[in-house]
Design brief:
Largest sheet: 2 strands, antiparallel
Number of strands: 2
Helix content: 55-70%
Number of helices: 4
Strand content: under 5%
Oligomer: single chain
Length: 109
């Protein structure tokens, strides 16, 4: 049996707000990789060209691992990894739906 104070403590420990647009940027990044998978991307401090079809899943995988373990790969921060993953999933679903219906001849009839 859980007391009211324990339940309130459990509920308020997950109640916080986030500020930023990084989830939306991940959606745009995934949409870009979906449309142009063979285009080459480069990081500012790692100037080696990497194709989008390899780079974007790698970045999303790093965020997924960081979300599951609670540790950041690059620096200790309060990064909202779940927001990044949600943006990536949303970008993929929007582009998948858009590409699926893009050449549908019966769409306007």
């Amino acid at each position: 049996m859980i007391s009211e104070s324990q339940l309130n403590s459990l509920y308020t420990s997950f109640n916080f707000s986030m500020v930023g647009a990084s989830g939306a940027l991940y959606g745009v990044l995934v949409a870009f990789a979906f449309l142009f998978p063979n285009s080459e991307l480069m990081l500012l401090f790692f100037p080696v060209p990497i194709k989008a079809k390899y780079f974007v899943p790698g970045v999303v995988l790093l965020d997924t691992i960081s979300a599951l373990t609670g540790r950041s790969f690059f620096s200790p921060s309060n990064t909202a990894f779940i927001a990044h993953i949600g943006g990536a999933i949303t970008g993929f679903l929007v582009m998948w739906y858009w590409k699926r219906n893009q050449f549908n001849q019966k769409r306007w009839n």
